[in-house]
Amino acid sequence: MPDNPAPLVLVEADGPVLTVTINRPEKRNATNAEVICRLYDAWVRLDQDDALRVAILTGRGPTFCAGMDLAEIGRLRTGVRDNEWISRLQDEPGLSLAAYLKTYRPTKPIILAAEGVARAGGTEILQGTDIRVAGESAVFGVTEVQRGLFPMAGSAVRLRRQMGYAVAAEMLLTGEDIPARRAVELGLINHVVPDGEALTKAREIAARIAANGPLAVRAILATLRETECLPEADAFGIEERYGHEVMRSKDAIEGPTAFFERRTPNFIGE
Questions:
Q1: How many angstroms separate the Cα of 164 from the Cα of each of 143, 158, 168?
Q2: 70 vs 21: which has the higher pLDDT
Q3: I need a surface site. Which of 40, 68, 127, 209 has the fewest CB within 10 A?
Q4: Catalytic residue selected from 124, 204, 226, 239
Q5: NCBIfam families annotated for this entry (predicted)?
Q6: What mean pLDDT is predicted for residues 202-213?
Q7: Residue 160, CB half-sphere, CA atoms under 13 Å: how many?
Q8: Cα 73 → chain centroid
Q9: Contact call for residues 204 and 119 (beta carbons, < 8 A)
Q10: pLDDT of amino acid 4
Q11: Which domains can be identified in the chain, with CATH numbers?
Q12: pTM confidence score
């Protein structure tokens, strides 16, 4: 083995776009303690770095993510502390659910680019992303029930809200996969592209988002999330609060000015 093996999550910034790649292809990108910790750290970086405006989550190789490594679950239950990542999870018990985007969602959008299999945690983390692209051979499934487990990263609540009760119930209770074409029909994902092109499509979407006013993007995203399942009258109050903040900003002056001057706007996030 190399002296300095590559991290199990690769995090690369290209201008305003942060690409987060699960890098465990020999294990079908199944998550372990290191993957979980590094995913969480990537989401915190996305939030805290003002130069970043959007992230892409993907997996290296032909599989997006086969879920949690079952061997790692056993190690965590024993309470062993044989590496720094296991120790960190033991010391920060809420970190796993934050990494899976259940209890922590960055204030900037995340685009999923999935090829191949996305099962268990691979489909659970999908539900915490905002825009989703899949290769045409991709399949999605919440398979925990087949192992006598519970999908702890939010699927028992989120899935029915994102694709309808009956379909969600069947997926959750049988643990069976649905193909990408079916997933896009149900609204679980946005785009199906030829195999191998999910990341390319995700980058195109990321570039379009990054070119927009960052205050407006974050305010719209916050409104979408905070108004879910609220009565319309209550939701409008949240919408107006975020909307007025944006409309009073310097960016709200720059955008129309650039349009009339026929130039690209220079948004500064203020």
A1: 18, 10, 6
A2: 21
A3: 209
A4: 124
A5: PRK07799.1
A6: 97
A7: 9
A8: 22
A9: no
A10: 61
A11: 9-210 (3.90.226.10), 214-260 (1.10.12)
A12: 0.94
